[in-house]
Fold this protein.
Amino acid sequence: MLRFASLSLLLTLAACTEEITDKASDAPFEVGDPGKADGALSTADRERLIAAFDAAITKAEVTVSQLESEIAQLEQSAAQKQQEADQLVQQIAAREQEIKDNFRTNLLICAFFPNPGTCSLGVAIQNDSQMTDYKAKLAAAQAQQQSIAQQIAKYTQKRDAIRANVTEIRAGKTRLLDMLAGNTPHPPAPPELAADPAAQDAFWRLGVMNDLDAAVVAEVGQLVTLRNLAVELDQTIDESILTIHALEASVDKIVEAQRKTMMDLIIGLTSGDPAAKATKFLDQQIAAKTRSLLGKLDWPLDEFVKYLLSARGEGNLNTLYKNIFQHLLDDAAPRTYSAETPVNILDHTRADSSLTVTDDRPAEFIDVTVEIEHTYINDLTISLEHGPDSLTLRNRSGGSGKNLTQTFRIKVPHVALKGAWTVHVADDVDGDIGRLVRWDLVAY
């Protein structure tokens, strides 16, 4: 009896697993033993198998269409986010003139102080520090802008190579489908089958079906790879935009600080004690310059704080040290990182979502919160990967429930936060699909 070697693969092909493996070599029958392809299948069985093959190919094409749609949406999202980043950098660059104008205004107000030289010196020192800070933030924003452009260029290069492969695969699929439809010549059958037309027909058809099976698997594998690259690009751009937003907020604070200086100066004039205000400016700038000097001397700020406290000899040194140092550096606050680009979870696939942490600080605990939309959460296995380490957070639990928002607390004494963190959501069961909406990582 004719053995349809690729049929089991074809019936599950639409699941399009992300890890495409080489198929086992399995000849449809042994040449010289035509009895295994003697047309023993009934007409009904033959039609049923052909219909199953056609249905599997059709379902695979639906998966291909879904992947293409997702890729197009991700690429459009990346282009829009690049425009957003460019606009943000332009807005930061446009603040330079405003900062200079505010500085000139504050110097002008100083001219009316009883001691304008002292006031002008304080404002000048302050402005020098603020302008240096502003230029550093502008340079950092421009570096993120350049990084986005480079990431898009890298993605485009990889995408073009994958698209070339897909084009070649699709051309081969078209040729194979034309053979099955009888529009183009098909491969010859072995001479041993010359006396049996039915076996000859079965031979070449099964060979073409096997080749078409391999082509569809290869096409889906290429598109899954491209989809994952697009998700990674979108998440990378998200991280850069968050950084640029933070830099923009910092520049806003510089401008606001200049405006506050202006109001303080005006209050100083109207209160009749401008000299006290000028002294306050100088004290603040001396503190800032001290921090800068310590950096140049490679004297850590925490060691300097300890030195000051020990020299004063007042109170509980450990408590004072902790309070001062934490207020200076805000090092005790939890840090939150988020991946907000949705990733589809298709049957027999694994959705991957990554974020990159640039902080060097260690952590004692990690909270991972996932938000998933899915019609049957019992299908899902969720894991977290960081460097060489991988941890399963949830394994096929939840019964017939829909959707999932859950926080997992992980104790990771002194783990280095820096690097890539990836959440994997695997769906190894037919029938239900969904998406990983977002996930957060909070470090303590």
